[in-house]
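Hello forum,

I keep getting stuck at the same step: I have a sequence, I want structure tokens, and every attempt I make locally crashes halfway through. Rather than fight my setup again tonight, could one of you with a working pipeline run this one for me? It's a single chain of 107 residues.
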Amino acid sequence: MFELVRFYKALGDETRLKLVALLGQQESGHAMCVGRLARELGVTPSAVSQHLRVLKDLGLVRGERRGYRLHYFLDPERLAAYHDLIREQLGEEFVVRESGSNPQTRR
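Reply #2:
Ran it on my machine without issues. Output:
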């Protein structure tokens, strides 16, 4: 359960959540550097670096050196592991359904 608490705590910051969403929208092979991420989010590069450090500590984000810059992307395997952990510990109701599926409504 501790790992899940760390995951949700990390995503509890609005800027960090926006950063994860932005990284999730990147096309394969088109990872962004800190400067670009900062411009897209409207924050300073140092703020992005601090948020990336938290996400890297969770294993959600990885960096790839291209020239003298690091470009960042979500780690799909680690993201899938958190997805499975959420399903295992909280149940199917907490797992995001893919678009096009029919969620059941409870009354």
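The domain at 2-91 is CATH 1.10.10.10 (Arc Repressor Mutant, subunit A). If your local run keeps crashing, start a new thread with the error log.
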